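STRUCTURE:
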């Protein structure tokens, strides 16, 4: 019996997809340029694309596409209005482990005063330092999806106390994690606050002046979600006032912030270029997420990591 032939439109270069070999099927990759006209014969039921809108996206969707899978997780920059009655899935969970590792690196760096503890000259005191620890400290999670759960597992291993804020009143998916009643309650309690929620209209500037005013003095803020969840002007004020002791930001708004922006030079800000997802095999993990769903599609099974178009994630 010959393999089933499956045609897939892709904005991702086909050479990056060589590992996608669903059993019992042969994939025909049809590369669609990001810009310019879509080839006349480019038609398929499946589209593998990026999480932000590319110029040729809307025309490509009209070429028989029934299912769209994005190479990343966040779809806040994807034109959800163009999806229509098609199915949209994402690579949710594919980057959770490296992101959680980055979070814990930032938490440890803050507690152990890194990099400011490194020496470039003889210190005033040797064998003495005022460093913090993680055991018994409170780590608050804004969001307890796949990233939040991986962060929680690692924080618990360091004997931290972990509480999480979630959209519903469902119980915690991780034993040992307490669900907070409100953002204000979480902020009053947390020593480290990790932002790991989806970017939607309802979460925009979730952390603003009111939130920072409620924070426990000396809060360490870690954002691995989207820059839109944090009001950066309010954060600036909270940093200057000492309410927030450090902000470890892997995502800001816009990306990148322009030259001369205060985030580059503020002594209490650790800014990175949205790289927390990076690790050996990171992109392959994103491709593998699509490959697993493609196998489900071929078998006629329900797809994983469905995007709720109304909720926006």
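SEQUENCE:
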């Amino acid at each position: 019996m010959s393999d089933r032939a499956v045609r897939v439109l892709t904005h991702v270069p086909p050479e990056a997809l060589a590992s996608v070999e669903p059993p019992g099927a042969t994939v025909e990759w049809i590369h669609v340029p990001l810009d310019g006209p879509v080839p006349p014969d480019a038609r398929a039921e499946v589209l593998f694309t990026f999480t932000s809108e590319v110029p040729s996206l809307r025309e490509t969707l009209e070429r028989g596409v029934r299912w769209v899978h994005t190479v990343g997780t966040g779809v806040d920059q994807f034109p959800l209005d163009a999806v229509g009655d098609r199915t949209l899935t994402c690579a949710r969970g594919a980057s959770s482990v490296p992101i959680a590792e980055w979070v814990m690196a930032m938490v440890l760096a803050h507690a152990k005063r890194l990099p400011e503890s490194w020496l470039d000259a003889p210190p005033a005191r040797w064998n003495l330092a005022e460093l913090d620890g993680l055991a018994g400290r409170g780590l608050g999670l804004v969001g307890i999806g796949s990233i939040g759960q991986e962060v929680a597992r690692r924080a618990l291993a360091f004997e931290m106390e972990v509480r999480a804020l979630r959209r519903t009143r469902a119980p915690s998916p991780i034993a040992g994690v307490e669900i907070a009643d409100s953002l204000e309650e979480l902020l009053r309690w947390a020593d480290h606050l990790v932002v790991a929620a989806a970017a939607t209209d309802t979460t925009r500037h979730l952390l603003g002046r009111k939130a920072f005013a409620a924070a426990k003095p000396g809060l360490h803020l870690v954002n691995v979600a989207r820059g839109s969840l944090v009001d950066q002007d309010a954060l600036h004020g909270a940093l200057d006032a000492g309410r927030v002791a450090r902000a470890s930001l892997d995502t800001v708004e816009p990306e990148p912030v322009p030259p001369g922006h205060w985030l580059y030079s503020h002594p209490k800000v650790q800014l990175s270029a949205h790289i927390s997802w990076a690790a050996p095999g990171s992109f392959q993990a994103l491709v593998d997420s699509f490959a697993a769903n493609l196998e489900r599609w071929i078998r006629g099974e329900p797809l994983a990591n469905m995007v709720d178009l109304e909720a926006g994630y």
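REMARK: Residues 4-93+280-299 form a domain with the Rossmann fold fold (CATH 3.40.50.720).
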